[in-house]
Automatic annotation (TrEMBL), chains A, B:
It comes from Nyctiprogne leucopyga. Residues 89-183 form the Seven-in-absentia protein TRAF-like domain. GO terms for cellular component: cytoplasm. Pathway: Protein modification; protein ubiquitination. One of its GO terms (molecular function) is ubiquitin conjugating enzyme binding. Keywords: Metal-binding, Ubl conjugation pathway, Zinc, Zinc-finger. This is E3 ubiquitin-protein ligase. The gene is Siah3. Its EC number is 2.3.2.27. Belongs to the SINA (Seven in absentia) family. It catalyses: S-ubiquitinyl-[E2 ubiquitin-conjugating enzyme]-L-cysteine + [acceptor protein]-L-lysine = [E2 ubiquitin-conjugating enzyme]-L-cysteine + N(6)-ubiquitinyl-[acceptor protein]-L-lysine. E3 ubiquitin-protein ligase that mediates ubiquitination and subsequent proteasomal degradation of target proteins. E3 ubiquitin ligases accept ubiquitin from an E2 ubiquitin-conjugating enzyme in the form of a thioester and then directly transfers the ubiquitin to targeted substrates. InterPro entries: 7-in-absentia-prot_TRAF-dom, SINA-like_animal, TRAF-like. The keyword Iron-sulfur does not apply.
Length: 197, 197
């Protein structure tokens, strides 16, 4: 890695109330979608094509470019629930990384990390994302197909279908209270790779 | 992978009582060490060199050979606490893989997997082990330095310094109640790699 580094947007969800999910089903490109930012209860809705500019302008979510980037989540000690969010621009698309600290079991906060494509579920199926932690002679890698932001990030996390870290592992991978997450996106289907040549 | 497959030795710890740890400190080669098998409370003790034959003969722990093997843990639905154990012979040494199902938080069993070298902590520092799960378009890899069996497997697991899976992830990676864990061992230091040439 010789990646860009960036401190992520970060917000403690107020009073533990996470925004509701309005968008469990896939929508057509022409439909309006609600704000997909999990940080805030936001009344905004718009077309999928303008979600990125909304997230950037209204919620000040940073965007990083490159095939492989490192997302630096600071202040990992903040109490749950807390979200860290960044956008990743890659392969002609924008992805949203969500790192969430949450207490599934009271008194035992865990960290959950997943990537969502700012696009449809069909588009998301064309990609594979990899999250990698690497420190103290330990390495943890998680690879999966991103979900679409039209699906609900809350359900991905409550299903546990993402990178899950308990507090002790998060500390082993942290440096001075910050967690560096290596992110890489690749195309997952042969015909896509061919189409790009 | 085109690995050997083997069903692991597997035992539900009786009444939830795990064997005590007698060997927190490193010992000299000449010292007697207690049985390192976490499955049973076993009164045996002997030299480090005969631990492997003890585990094989008395506890019927299987041994697999090869640079990359797949350990197939069956009956993942068994109630916690349950251990799955296998020995892995590689690079002139024997390693012990321990997969444990345990309820750190009551009602929420998790799976913990780690590798121990049947050797001293100094010898263990020369190696890196990798555990890999790969199924349903998801991949999870854990890489770390093995601990010595002279350290206590219980403390490795209670520290959470190992591969940790919650039940939902374990189900995503399981096939028909069985979890296939890819295992690879490499030497971690340059001078070792050179010494083997």
């Amino acid at each position: 890695y010789a990646p860009a580094r960036c401190t992520a947007a970060q917000t403690s969800a107020e009073q533990g109330v996470l925004p509701p999910c309005h968008h469990h089903e896939a929508v057509h490109d022409s439909q309006l979608v609600p704000c997909t930012c999990p940080l805030f209860s936001c009344p905004w809705e718009g077309h999928l094509e303008v979600v990125v500019s909304h997230l950037r302008q209204t919620h000040r979510i940073n965007i990083l470019q490159g095939a492989e980037i490192v997302f630096l989540a600071t202040d990992m000690h903040l109490p749950a629930p807390t979200d860290w969010i960044i956008m990743h621009s890659c392969l002609g698309h924008q992805f949203l990384l969500v790192l969430r600290k949450q207490e599934k079991y009271e008194g035992h906060p865990q960290f959950f990390a997943t990537m969502m494509l700012i696009g449809t579920p069909t588009q998301a199926d064309n990609f594979t994302y990899r999250l990698e932690l690497n420190r103290n002679q330990r390495r943890l890698k998680w690879e999966a197909t991103p979900r679409s932001v039209l699906e609900c990030v809350d359900s991905v996390i409550s299903d546990g279908d993402c990178l899950v870290l308990n507090t002790s592992l998060a500390q082993l991978f942290s440096d001075n209270g910050s967690l560096a997450i290596g992110i890489a996106i690749t195309t997952s289907k042969v015909h896509n790779a061919e189409a790009e040549m």
